[in-house]
């Protein structure tokens, strides 16, 4: 049994092998595969043909995204293509979902049988601690990280009967004895090994890395492993001056090490799924992640209707993202869209996804979005359908709704948002400013960070001195971005909002400013003892606007 796997082709791919049409896929950032067992030749060269159509942004409204975006629209085979060969009885996937912090995990194994006869097989599960040395960190294959075996309890062996040309699904619960929990401070991982055998002969082995950790909300807090966590981080566009979007894994790893070096514990991986190694590396380095599909600036109702009712390419993208990265312990938030003005369309989409995830593939992660703070404002009804309310916040830069500038505009917005959603954590999905390609705006970048972060810090769930903040409802903040990137939107095709220039070497003054402020939280942003949850909405608004509101800078 041979599969032809594509990690990403932008935007539509038609695929032929040796003159046989295999099929097509739409969507530039998520994986797809074909069964090529009957199309492969073993007596001569094989000819693979891929036709790519990258429909220009702005030319039609039935693609995702459809509007001209603030990143570069690289065309073609963006990420890896490879053949995967196995027995005709093989493991398709194995999902590991943490049920509690005591080591209880739910394992769901899917075994495929492409034979034309029913087959009986034996499935065995074993769990190992993952290696943590520097060589293992760089590996793409989880099997290369297998270390000492971990003790487990529960049903770890099963005999399955698989119908001809079909699959069998086995779900079981295992308890890892004395589990070590995954967190940004201690990114401890395990490796699940699935062995499929028949008559004592091994037919297939499958490995996947995972961590034991829980993500949930309690009123206006996000809890990691049952404790309040504060996400202080940056975003990253998958872009590079030498490699474009086709970045080698060694450079991806280096990028994420730089993210960690600025005292971030959290990464927003742009507006689209990145190369899958990005999330393997985030697991191993210890970064919590928001991963997103490219539903970008759906401002009108018509494109929403096209997708919500007819095409549903955005649903396909969401499923492909979730099922590709389901075992990544780093991923805490699934994001559904960015800065889409139309509220009605967002509500319909969020309702659809929330219902589907909860009923068909719950994984304990949180559903969010990245709305624009000025479109329509803190009263955005669609946030009520998210687990975490998310907004990009550029007060005093792109808009000034409150007429109060960066600090007071941001402060008043988040207070109003808490009024509307008092039982919901709020995450700032973007704030920042550009340095200019000539680097003439260094001082302005620093001022924007200082002014905006000053509005966030008193509302963080953990104060800079390490004490829990009962009035802290801002679960996370995101500087946009770690590196400069190429874009179709900006004049000259270059965006300079990074902490560091695109060469990954030249840091801007704002980087040290952010690094210093984040240092107050890097060792205090998790494992905080829970305190009674209290919402600011319980206090008179006049009090909340007073200057004596708890401030870590005093």
Detailed description of the structure:
The protein has 554 residues and is an alpha/beta fold. It is 20% helix and 31% strand. The chain contains ten helices and 30 strands. It has helices at 134-137, 249-261, 277-285, 301-311, 313-324, 343-360, 405-420, 442-456, 509-519, 541-544; strands at 2-6, 9-10, 12-17, 20-26, 32-35, 48-53, 76-77, 81-85, 89-98, 104-113, 119-130, 146-149, 152-154, 157-162, 166-176, 190-198, 201-210, 215-218, 221-224, 227-228, 231-235, 266-268, 288-292, 331-338, 366-372, 389-392, 426-430, 474-479, 485-486, 494-495. The chain has an eight-stranded parallel barrel, surrounded by five helices. Strands 11, 12, 14, 16 and 17 form a five-stranded antiparallel sheet that branches. Strand 16 and strand 17 (201-210) form a beta hairpin. The radius of gyration is 24 Å and the shape is globular. The model is unreliable at 530-554 (pLDDT under 50).
Name the descriptors.
disordered C terminus; 10 helices; alpha/beta; 554 residues
